[in-house]
Amino acid sequence: MKTERPDINPSGPEGRGTGLTRRDRRTSEMEKTFEALLAGLPELDLRQLQALAAEARAYPANSYPRFLEKLQADDPAECALAFLLLRECGDAELKDTLNATVFDISQDDLAKVRANELLTELGSPIDPDVLEMTVPEAAQLAAGSPWSLLRTLDAGQTEAAAEVFCKLDARTRAVLIHHIARKDLTRALSFFQTILGEDEANARAVASALGQSGAAAAVPLLLQLVAHPAKEVQKTVKRMLFLLRAAGVAVPEAEPAREDESLRESPAATAVAEAGLPVHKALVGQTPSGLVAVVAVAREYPNGRLNTLIIIVDFWRRGIVDARHWISMSRSEFRRYIQERFGTQVKFREASLEECRRLAARGLRVAQELGTPIPFDFQTGKGVLGELAADVAALSNPFICSQCQGELDDESIARLRATAGYDMPAETRCARCRRAASAAAQPPAGSQVQQPPAPEEKSSRGAAPA
Q1: DSSP per position, 136-189
Q2: Fewest CB atoms less than 10 Å from the CB: which of 42, 143, 223, 385?
Q3: pTM, whole model, 2 decimals?
Q4: What is the DSSP string of 310-346?
């Protein structure tokens, strides 16, 4: 049986004053990552999912029971995502945990059935006769699970699986689309052709799953989706084709969707049009550590819909870490995304458009200086912020001391370059502030540290000497 990582220095800098062990902190971070993946649907970041699975495998005693509980959640999308995550884990430790769940008399029947369904997906099902003795109504309970259509699809009944699929909510469908693509891409392509239509959520999920498959077989269907009527789908497809090209897959240039030539605009004209819309909201938030900022700008169309750009900026290690651009979203969708994606981790305040632009420009300059990649959505949506060139050019040195707000010295910048792109602590203070902090930590000159008195010696009879 695999041994978990030990809690090394739980009272170290990361946990000082929190009362949490490293395992507790890791488990809390896993919960947050899971919620972020759920909030990002219908698209799903598979690299983030795989990283979460690796973390779960490292701490199975804490993570597996928590994610197994989610298999019984009221939200079917949460159930489906937990199922996909645990399937990604798929190690012997998980199988042992699932087997123990099935035969644990303290577990209810639904938990046992869901555990066996996951064991079946992992190729180690409980014998049907044994399961029936343990859970007499196992068949009926299994029929109601969000992923029951996987068995129907495995049986080659594509039309029947599509009928079940259409009855599910959009977020659950999105998770299952990624699950099917991960399991068998050839079968998935046939199924996707059956379910694709005008539904925007389905199309975005299919594009996201195909683009992250890294397979040449995904290209023809992605090229078909270029002509989808929904702008968000077109944007997702372009991003996924970009990823496939970056992975070395041969992708022919897609023919542009036919449109009235008089209405076609250049990228520059689109940026100007976006910048001309009135600002609905301009928000700036910061994480408790102060190392990362979030900038959210939403401009309002005459019909009340919003053109929105949200970026996450790390001013010392990566520059622009992530970006999301929506060509059209409602006000309620904007509020809900901010709440679900960031929760209480980031405290937002109203800001001016100029401040948002300066922060974005600084993040862009940091990324350029460190050579870290610029997210695709930032490239497509930066017009929401307006013209950035002047703000970028005004920054002779984008690296600022987190303590005195002066420019960082060359030595500190060299250290940042050496660790660029890595999730490791960064020294954000200039040399002067570091020296001042070091001096403050030293005892005053000439002072003596008082030593504790030596214990009194006792005579051989145990009495103190006279």
Answers
A1: TTHHHHHHTSTTHHHHHHHTT-HHHHHHHHHTS-HHHHHHHHHHHHHH-HHHHH
A2: 143
A3: 0.56
A4: EEEEETTTTEEEEEEEEEEE-HHHHHHHHHHHHTTTS
